[in-house]
Amino acid sequence: MVKEAAAPSTEQTSPNDRTLSAVGNIAVKCPKCREILYGRDLEKNQKVCPRCSHHFRINARERIKLLVDEGSFVEIDADIIPTDPLHFVVSPPNQAKSIDYASKLVEERKKADQNEAIISGYATIDGKPIALAVMDFFFMGGSMGSVVGEKITRAIELAMKQRIPMLIVSTSGGARMQEGIFSLMQMAKISAALARLGELALPYFSLLTDPTTGGVSASFAFQGDVILAEPGALICFTGPRVIEGFMHIKVPENTINSDFALQHGMIDAVVHRRELHQTLARLLHMYPTITK
Ligand SMILES: [Zn+2]
């Protein structure tokens, strides 16, 4: 039996990352080089540490803003709301109160001010149209529930209808276990939609960001015609904490990140955040020659 990735990651999220959405004058310590940074300066630098280039996690709206042409993004399917098909309840040991998924969803939707762990739509990059689906790690660790899968599939279908390329930005702790098989089925559904996109010779660009794990890395994240990743991003199927917990071995450092994936031919390029827009623009200018 395959084991899912490290738990969707509010646990993996450092306090620094979680405060970043509300920075400004707040001082933030870089988790890599320990430099104390002003939130405002970090914002100006696209949330990349100016000293060591550590790429902080950013939410889906921030990601879209830095990738596409200003003012060009049109969101679709924003009103699709997740449900609780299994009436899932967890009773954690040593805790008196059980946690039900339905309440958790209400809380997450309110906190994130969006309905799910993904934002989808269409936009232009350097004037070239593209459909895109951008995952959001700050909503339940970017876990892939039914709505996430449905919104990605619909964005791919939009790309097919409009005959435009597709971009998926992944960041995820894996499939959403609270939705069981409904969550796992999304892997096949999205993969089938991408296969249809491929039959039309429309390109699919995949961008892996920190972290891309579990059912997401095991399906659409690695099915791109071109696969890019941000520097230092955790990229794996099973996260190091789970491996260490089950196997009682220490996972060697730097063996589950984007550089390692590049060295071993799993991805095409590691691209600094400030160069992503330009890189995608170049790809979009190259690919139309082969579209039908
Ligand atoms: Zn740093």
UniProtKB/TrEMBL annotation:
Where does this protein hold Zn(2+)? C30, C33, C49, C52
* GO biological process: one example: fatty acid biosynthetic process
The CoA carboxyltransferase N-terminal domain extends over 26-292
| Cofactors | Zn(2+)
Q: Which Pfam families match?
A: Carboxyl_trans, Zn_ribbon_ACC
- Which terms does the record give in the GO molecular function aspect? acetyl-CoA carboxylase activity; ATP binding; carboxyl- or carbamoyltransferase activity; zinc ion binding
Q: For this protein, what does the record note about how its cofactor is bound?
A: Binds 1 zinc ion per subunit.
Q: Where are the zinc fingers (C4-type)?
A: 30-52
What InterPro entries does the record point to? AcCoA_carboxyl_beta, Acetyl_CoA_COase_Trfase_b_su, ClpP/crotonase-like_dom_sf, COA_CT_N, Znf-ACC
State the EC number(s).
2.1.3.15
Catalytic activity reported: N(6)-carboxybiotinyl-L-lysyl-[protein] + acetyl-CoA = N(6)-biotinyl-L-lysyl-[protein] + malonyl-CoA
Q: What does this protein do?
A: Component of the acetyl coenzyme A carboxylase (ACC) complex. Biotin carboxylase (BC) catalyzes the carboxylation of biotin on its carrier protein (BCCP) and then the CO(2) group is transferred by the transcarboxylase to acetyl-CoA to form malonyl-CoA.
The family note in this entry says: Belongs to the AccD/PCCB family.
Q: How does it assemble?
A: Acetyl-CoA carboxylase is a heterohexamer composed of biotin carboxyl carrier protein (AccB), biotin carboxylase (AccC) and two subunits each of ACCase subunit alpha (AccA) and ACCase subunit beta (AccD).
Q: What is this protein called?
A: Acetyl-coenzyme A carboxylase carboxyl transferase subunit beta
* Origin species: Reticulibacter mediterranei
Gene name in the database record: accD
